[in-house]
Amino acid sequence: MLGVMRKYKQSIVIKVVFVVIVLSFIGTIFLVWGKGGSDGRGGKSYAATVNGTKISLDEFQKSYYRTRGLYEQIYGRSLTPELEKQMGIKKLTIDTLIDNVLILDEAKKMGVKVNKDQVAAEIAKIPAFQKNGAFDFGVYQQTLKVNRITPKDFEESQEQEMVLQKTRNKIKESATVTDAEVKEAFKKQNDKVNLAYVSFSPADVKGSVKLTDQELTSYLQEHQNDFKTPEQVSVAYTVVNPAQAAAKVSVTADEVQTYYQKNIDRYQGKGGILPFAEVKDKATADAQKQKAAKEAYEKAAEAVNKFKANGDLDGAAAALGGKVEKTALFTAKAPAAALAGENEVVARAFALKQGELGGPVETAKGIYLVKVLDKKPAAVPPLAQIKGAVEAKAVEVKAADLAKKKAEEALQQLSKGGAAKETGSFGFAPTGVVPAIGTSPELMEAAFTLNAPNQAAKQPFKVGERWYAVALKSRTEAPLTELAKDSGSIKAALLPKKQQEALDKWVKGLREKAKIDINPMVLQD
Asked: Which residues form a coiled coil (predicted)?
């Protein structure tokens, strides 16, 4: 039935239910203090400890998978390992669990509680548990059952989530926006500034960069991975095509019927699952293909076991009725043409030792047996062979550093009124687009902190490939006559950020005072 579920995975109902469940569960349902147990490998038996409270490995794993699942729902696709690593989902998960332990502990000290009636009322608001706009206990039970969650666990998770949110809100309520902050925001929104600036790019200073052989040698030693020739292998292989033997394989009526039942989702028509009688011929052919593939794989495995000790690929190929093909040396990123697209075969080739016979490896094209003929490890060529490439890279890095350094020196000159170009007068833009310079939200923010003529920014800013040193040429201040009228809306706009900052600062303080031990294993890729 997995195929049926995959077919209907885009159902909006399923998505809504899934997101509701995940949002309620991340970092709460598995907060069962003190649980743990051995990790089976003699390592730490917990994901983390927080002031002596254990967060179990099981708790972390379940929260991690739910967090990842939520992001996959949001993005509408599976996350690649690279994207997942870039997003830091494992760290996000363990940090959330740790923060929740700390907040719940503080909630007890602060006397923050919710009662059963409040929990029930909150659950009744969840659309996934409603029918015709009202909470339905039968829908509630069925939804939880489908997601393998007991009402007790879900209600406890909701209670904890409500306590967490209530505690967070209590901290946020302490945040205030001062009149000075309102005035500063008003001025930022209404004043206009004109900046003086000078800029430097690596291309501007590249010609002045000269490097000695000693500097190039040092650069090569520090950046060896940038210049390594990749590992190479050449292989011999044979491939068996199970489809060629399918016609010779016979299947019984029971085998066909069993295959149909196990793969019933493959036989769907417009009205749903097609009866066995209508797809009997197709099911028979499919069952033959599967049986042929299984038998071919087993024969290939037997051949490997028989001839592996001597690395005798010729003997294995003969036993399977195949022929042996050979490749020239190739790299993992640029495999031999005959193996293009056969990623599993290529990966197996690089995992084998020279002269070793490996397999079977099953792909869409067939079942492969592979033997490594030659293997050349990755290596860094002598400087003399790659001096041009090393010099080009080293000069590029040196020029980038020099451009930044010149921009830093230029700040001093601008503060004294040194010669510079001007941006012209402009107002604050949330997009960060600075006239004559480009897009830099950081530079935009810094520009409106400058008040005195020739006041320079604290550091240069990189926009594109150029480094910019900026100073205030002039500032046109807007009249404050409208400040009183706008202060309410400005304060309302600033408050959410101040509240979040207050919460972040509070949680950071809790973490700084807490004794936290994170098991490194939970952050491994």
From this structure: 280-310
Average pLDDT of the residues in 492-504: 95
Q: How does DSSP assign 251-278, residue by residue?
A: --HHHHHHHHHHTGGGSEETTEEPPHHH
Q: Which pLDDT score is estimated for 278? A: 84
Question: CB-side exposure of 98: number of CA atoms within 13 Å?
Answer: 24
DSSP code per residue over 81-105 = HHHHHHHTHHHHHHHHHHHHHHHHH
Three-state SS at 361: strand
Q: Which residue has the tokens 């030693």?
A: 221
Give the integer Cα–Cα distance in Å for 419 and 417.
7
Q: How far is CA 84 from the centre of its chain?
A: 2
- 3-class SS letters over 125-163: CCHHHEECCEECHHHHHHHHHHCCCCHHHHHHHHHHHHH
CA–CA separation, 449 vs 436, rounded Å?
Answer: 19
Q: Indicate the DSSP class of residue 478.
A: P
pTM: 0.57
Long-range CB pairs of 14-17 (<8 Å, 24+ gap) are: 15/73, 16/127, 16/128, 17/128, 17/143, 17/146, 17/147
Query: Tell me, what amino acid is at 394?
Result: A
* Maximal C-alpha separation, the chain: 94
